[in-house]
Recover the amino acids of this structure.
């Protein structure tokens, strides 16, 4: 349940063991409201409190405001970050690419695609969203840099483009069911091997 | 304005030159309602008629039903299909990849991401959406097959995976502004060259 911890800017006051159930209910209320079609804009602490069956003060005691609460709720959809083993760049990438677009919570399927255009309209929310995905990006970036350093990958690799090449195919398939005939189970390996080896005849 | 032609299953009755303005108003009404957050489910012929300032009969004279109208409206967002020159597989792919996720209508940015989860819940709507993107897929598939035939691309190429590799990075960037630091103008070339050449050191 480590994903339920408040963000760094919302220190939990000690000695509050009863709070776990309220935390849970509040996070669940946020995700339910978003999955039912609430926009970020329309989502209010009041609506969350009503849905969770708690008072507004209970929420403010745990989170400094809507954005911090939202960030904890969205982070919860994704579960824990995958940790690569560090032996082979190819195998590490298969692990990381397999985690792209993977959500542990089925509500993500309704929440995430709709969230994107709204997030993009607000600089604050855009930053909030980047904060959620950046730790995952950082791990992939490190694996790619290691590959360049060990000589497994090209010395002139554009790391950011490489990340888009590896992430894009998984995201469109998982978030948008882009192509009904692609085999989701084989896709992480197919994407990594395809991008590493290239399509050109040699 | 060829994009405004009714679908094949909705033959236009001849001798109706005044209809263009009504066609336009009806299509605009659909796109406005979707951009304002209407779900496909909630979108009714009645709501479209009210918004367009026409009678329901005017709509039914032009389209057999909501799905045919919706398909024409969504197709309109994307504009005309790019036609590759057929000289170099690499250059043709740059053209086609550059058109991925490109919408001529700014409302697409609000409509498309939110549409996806809804479309995926209904087999009819999923098929409708596939009908819109399949002609574009077909052209890319043909370029890739030609590349295999000419020896430019690997003989063992998995065409569907290759299409996902080429399409995914563009779609996440254009539809979701996935990575703020990627240069959108250079991306089609970077994606095609990256995927063709591969990331592995040689």
């Amino acid at each position: 349940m480590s994903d339920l911890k408040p963000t760094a800017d919302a220190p939990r006051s000690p000695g509050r063991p009863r709070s776990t159930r309220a935390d849970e209910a509040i996070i669940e209320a946020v995700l339910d409201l978003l999955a039912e079609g609430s926009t970020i804009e329309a989502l209010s602490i009041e609506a969350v409190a009503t849905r969770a069956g708690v008072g507004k003060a209970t929420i403010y005691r745990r989170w400094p405001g809507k954005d911090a609460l939202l960030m904890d709720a969205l982070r919860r959809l994704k579960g824990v970050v995958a940790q690569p083993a560090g032996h082979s760049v190819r195998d590490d990438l298969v692990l990381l690419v397999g985690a792209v677009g993977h959500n542990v919570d089925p509500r993500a399927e309704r929440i995430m695609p709709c969230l994107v255009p709204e997030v993009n309209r607000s600089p604050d929310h855009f930053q909030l969203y980047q904060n959620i995905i950046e730790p995952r990006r950082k791990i992939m970036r490190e694996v790619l840099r290691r590959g360049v350093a060990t000589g497994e990958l090209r010395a002139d690799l554009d790391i950011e483009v490489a990340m888009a090449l590896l992430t894009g195919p998984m995201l469109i398939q998982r978030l948008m069911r882009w192509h009904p005939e692609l085999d989701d189970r084989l896709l992480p390996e197919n994407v990594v091997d395809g991008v590493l080896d290239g399509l050109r005849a040699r």
In short: Residues 1-16 of chain A have pLDDT under 50 and may be disordered. The two ends of chain A are 49 Å apart (CA to CA).
